[in-house]
TrEMBL record, chain A:
Residues 1-76 form the Carrier domain. InterPro entries: ACP-like_sf, PP-bd_ACP. This is Phosphopantetheine-binding protein. It comes from the Bacteria. It holds the Pfam family PP-binding.
Automatic annotation (TrEMBL), chain B:
PANTHER family: ACYL-COA DEHYDROGENASE (PTHR43884), ISOVALERYL-COA DEHYDROGENASE, MITOCHONDRIAL-RELATED (PTHR43884:SF12). The lineage of its organism: Bacteria, Bacillati, Actinomycetota, Actinomycetes, Micromonosporales. Residues 239-359 form the Acyl-CoA dehydrogenase C-terminal domain. Gene3D superfamilies: Acyl-CoA dehydrogenase/oxidase, N-terminal domain (1.10.540.10), Butyryl-CoA Dehydrogenase, subunit A, domain 2 (2.40.110.10), Butyryl-CoA Dehydrogenase, subunit A, domain 3 (1.20.140.10). It comes from Micromonospora robiginosa. Its EC number is 1.-.-.-. The keyword Oxidoreductase applies. This is Acyl-CoA dehydrogenase family protein. It comes from the Bacteria. InterPro entries: Acyl-CoA_DH_C, Acyl-CoA_Oxase/DH_mid-dom_sf, AcylCo_DH-like_C, AcylCoA_DH/ox_N, AcylCoA_DH/ox_N_sf, AcylCoA_DH/oxidase_NM_dom_sf. It holds the Pfam family Acyl-CoA_dh_2. Residues 12-111 form the Acyl-CoA dehydrogenase/oxidase N-terminal domain.
């Protein structure tokens, strides 16, 4: 996870305080609810220039910070490897 | 033939008992103790207990069938039954071996009616958060939980309680814990004077006590998953069945009255106005009932209950079944007029049904579900209809 991503997450996690956000951080335990989830999605799509497909818009995608980052990473990496 | 097919006589018995006491329970806002006793005696409390644990092994369809039937005579009894079944389903799906062995056979024997403690002051109806904590105290977990609304609480033999997990960093890490009545000190902290669903006797309570670790249902923090897979679907399906049942029961009473000799004089069955109104009410019931049965089939087949189209449908069922049932009751009052539709001593009991069904939009507020469905809709731009 890069700093840009964890800092983007922080305002959506009202219970995170100043604690470090790790790959294992459970987003819902830290205060992400279904109403904010959609705002987070828009923020991610705008910031990282990706479009999350419908089949990834499931509860498990938003379970942990690392899991969500994994989805973003996959979308940023063109098929065939290599990062932009 | 399903394992649950033999419950029909039990349903008939419980419905008869519930009908005999419905008016009194409504007037006094007291719990339908006679109907609960009949549920214990007939084994109906164990409808959803798996056959291996001594129950009827009933399915969601069985729950709907029974709740519809009970709702026809007393909506409160139907809600009490459906909410108990929701607790049984949670233990069946997520309880550890020891908890299942302790609770489920006893439920099947009619010895345990399970109450639900999920409401909490100060959280604004958020099911998925908890304010009061479960505290680790040696081997035991200490509970101190106040709840503003506990359906049938004073009559429950045990409770399923949501609390903040012992290791919780936030109010969003919620446990579901089983507590037998003799493990908690139960204090009723207020009264119950509602407009309708008066026989649910949903008083405020405070529960204090301690339970061993194995009485936590699922692992710590598992309530979110239990809510998605069991609590929310069974609440919405069960409530919808209770409400549609209540409206169908009222409609049946009006139709029987309209066909009687006295009724024919009042109603003039050849009147086009009467026929159009009767058709409109039937349409509401058929539409809500079809939505209920469709939702059950989606839940039965769903690979992932957290899938957006499934969550949307469940919320829609709750909202729509409540709206259509209440609208049907309202139109029945209009159709039958002041004497038969509005007076509290009319044998058609439309006034009671009308008051009962007014609660539907408030039982987990529709507005909260509409907001959730708005957010969920944005998660499903392809509009995959479940």
């Amino acid at each position: 996870m890069n700093t840009e991503f964890t800092e983007l997450l922080r305002p959506f996690l009202k219970f995170a305080g100043t604690d470090e956000i790790t790959e294992e951080s459970r987003l819902r335990d830290l205060g992400l609810d279904s109403m904010r989830e959609i705002e987070l999605l828009f923020a991610i799509e705008d910031t990282f220039g990706v479009s999350v497909p419908d089949d990834k818009l499931v509860d498990s995608t938003f379970a942990t910070a690392g899991g969500l980052w994994g989805v973003v990473e996959d979308l940023r990496t063109p098929v065939g490897g290599g990062s932009r | 033939m399903t394992a649950a097919a033999g419950y029909a006589p039990a349903v008939e018995t419980v419905a008869e008992v519930a009908a005999a006491h419905a008016r009194e329970a409504d007037e006094t806002a007291t719990f339908p103790t006679e109907a609960l006793a009949a549920m214990r005696r007939t084994g109906l409390l164990g409808l959803l207990v798996p056959a291996a644990e001594g129950g009827a092994g009933g399915t969601l369809t069985d729950l709907v069938d029974v709740t519809l039937a009970l709702g026809r005579v007393d909506m409160s009894v139907a809600m009490v039954f459906a909410m108990h079944c929701q607790q049984v389903a949670a233990i069946t799906a997520y309880g550890g071996e020891k908890l299942r062995a302790d609770v489920l056979p006893a439920v099947a024997r009619g010895e345990r009616y399970l109450g639900s403690v999920t409401t909490e002051a100060g959280k604004g109806g958020h099911l998925l958060t908890a304010e009061s904590a479960l505290a680790q105290d040696g081997e035991m977990l200490r509970i101190d939980r106040a709840a503003p609304i506990v359906t049938g609480g004073p009559y429950a033999d045990a409770f399923l309680i949501t609390t903040r997990a012992p290791d919780a960093g936030s109010a969003a890490r919620v446990d579901l814990v089983y507590a037998a009545r003799d493990q908690v000190e139960v204090e009723v902290t207020g009264g119950w004077r509602p407009l309708g669903m008066r026989a649910t006797h949903s008083v405020p309570m405070r529960l204090r006590g301690a339970v061993p670790q194995w009485q936590v249902i699922g692992e710590h923090g598992a309530f979110r998953e239990i809510a998605t897979t069991v609590f929310a679907p069974l609440a919405h399906v069960g409530w919808a069945a209770a409400w549609i049942g209540a409206a169908a029961g009222a409609y049946a009473r009006v139709l029987r009255h309209a066909r009687s000799e006295a009724g024919r004089r009042q109603f003039a069955p050849s009147s086009e106005l009467v026929l159009l109104r009767l058709a409109g009410i039937r349409t509401r019931l058929d539409a809500a009932h079809a939505l209920l049965r469709h939702t059950v089939s989606v839940v039965d087949d769903a690979a992932d209950m957290s899938a957006t189209p499934v969550q949307l449908l469940l919320n829609t069922l709750k909202i729509r079944a409540g709206e259509e049932s209440f609208a049907a009751a309202h139109e029945l009052v209009e159709l039958t007029g002041l004497r038969h539709g509005y007076l509290t001593d009319s044998p058609l009991a439309l006034e009671r049904t009308f008051r009962d069904l007014r609660s539907a939009s408030l039982n987990y507020a529709d507005d909260r579900l509409r907001l959730a469905n708005g957010a969920l809709s944005l998660r499903d731009p392809g509009v995959r209809l479940a």
